[in-house]
Design brief:
By secondary structure, the chain is an alpha+beta fold. The chain is built from five helices and six strands, in the order ααββαβαβαββ. The protein has one domain: Aminopeptidase (3-Layer(aba) Sandwich), CATH 3.40.630.30.
Amino acid sequence: MAEVEHLYRQASRDAPLWEPPEVAGVFAELYGALLPRPDLLTTSLRAGGRLVGFAYGHPWHWTEQADPWGRQLHTRLDAAADLLEDSFAVCLLVVDPSRRRQGLGGTLLDTLLAETRQRAWLVTRDEPTPALALYEQRGWRRVGHGPDAPNGRPGLVLLHD
């Protein structure tokens, strides 16, 4: 958890995200809470023993989603929420900022999706970021908006069939 928090903090502190350090703590806590899941999938990249890329996710079922974030996701997606049932939720994809533009994000994403072999979805910022460009280049499509991203604006929900 500490490595994931450190990596996210480094990746999100500058442009284009400009997120406060507390956001990294939230992402690390969520990952820690999901660690006991037997169906949690993770993939990581290391260089010199240091975590430089990380992604994880799990199968998504609406019956398991009783928290406020999940309820808001369902409400905001409305009819499109049905597209997420029995899919794979990509919860986090993060790359060390010194390793950007080297294809690591794509490698992590492709590795995670190869393991799932099912429809997948994620939430990202609804603004032109390198992450959004990566997803759209790989065929992810926009299906609606979900809970607010750390910037206070509704997150963009993308689906990969």
